[in-house]
Amino acid sequence: MKITNVKQIDEFLAALRHCTGAVWLESKDGDKINLKSRLSQYVAISALLSAEGDNLGLYCAKQEDEALFLNFFGRFPETV
Questions:
Q1: What is the pLDDT of residue 55?
Q2: Is 19 helix (H, G, I), strand (E, B) or coil?
Q3: Domain residue extents for the chain
């Protein structure tokens, strides 16, 4: 899922905390940021808030986790 304009960081991280599988951001260059790592979450937040934030894709290994983010996107449609 391509994401843009994520300003609701607390809600984004709350959805992430409920995920049980791998979740990562991927840049257009193929760089991947593992969102299950606390340190990587700080890097990801920085990337989301930067100019590069509009060029990131969100990927989930499990469909259940993807559903959590679809709920998030439903509440904040400007992020997709």
A1: 81
A2: coil
A3: 2-74
